[in-house]
Amino acid sequence: MVSGFVLRLVRESMPRTQAGLAEALGVDVETVQGWESGRRPLANMRAGALLELRRRLPALGGDRVLVVWLDAAMDADRIIAAGLDGETGGPHPLAGWVHTRGTAHMLAWAVNGTVPPALTGRLPRARRGPVAVAPTLAAADRAVFFDRLRDTTEAAARQGESGVLLHRQALYLASYDQGPDAAAWTAQALHRRRDVLARRGWSPHWAEARSTAAALARLGDPQPLLDFIDRALADDDVAEAANLNYWALWLGALALPQPDDAFMRDRDLSGWDPVTLLRGLAGGLHLAPGFVDLYAHSLWALLTAFPWLPQAAGPLAGPLRGQTGLLLDQAALSVRSRRELSHVHYVFDHDR
After folding, report:
1. Distances (CA, A) of 180 to 104, 175, 191
2. Treating both helix axes as pointing N-terminal to C-terminal, what angle do 164-174 and 139-157 enclose, rounded to 10 degrees?
3. What is the pLDDT of residues 108-141, one digit of tens each?
């Protein structure tokens, strides 16, 4: 459903009708209708045919940004299908790879209507008649999805080490449920993981602790994330590297899919582009309690690891300098975050 909606946006950006796109691709109009409605999922296409479709869409005038988002949309469809169908025919999608921000944004769009920031300005205007303006799940399907996601979370917790990745990602996504009873369940489930939050520095459960703290911040409790920064992140070289590596995957600087959390332990910080990560972190700075402190620390750590970045920042430098200055004036920051954000601001201000 999500990938079909994104495909519709691509078609409308050309702009072409369903019949016009079908003709250009050499398929019948029912095929295009099936792709867009979800009756013929894009992910079920043969690999060669899907690759050819992705190459043809920009050549026909489709918005390249939207075409890139088809991958995340198909990932979101797989996760939604696993939740609605109950049976995956194999490992759960959340157990098979570390999902990215793109996938999470597509899921949030489907389950609670939150438009991915990257798609702002690319969505169709509301029309008369039964034309969807977002790939939002029906209320009944949304309830089934979250009920089964909670069941998956609890089952993964009983699997021990083999269920760590599934449990971490399912529990984090469960925090997207905005239902009146969901917040209480999610908060209780997260607080049951207080043992992992209490650990200092790097541990095999570091990624779980980070996700738990971030999910609690999403629910309005920023203190665990602030404590995580002080206790399990700052001044620990392995944990600092893990944080940057995780950000790199989450924000798209690390393009290779990762089947588990092992990539986080790469202390050489290899395989990803620091400038791309800087761009992603700069774009995510905001005033949400707790999260701004994590962004501030991560920016400081990135500049510490790559001191040449200010010279390579180009057009990023001005907006980042302005935004850090604004946050220093307005945001309620911890002592550590204020010190680190001041350093980031000074570096970019000094290099003008």
Report:
1. 21, 12, 18
2. 150
3. 999 988 888 888 888 877 666 566 788 989 999 9
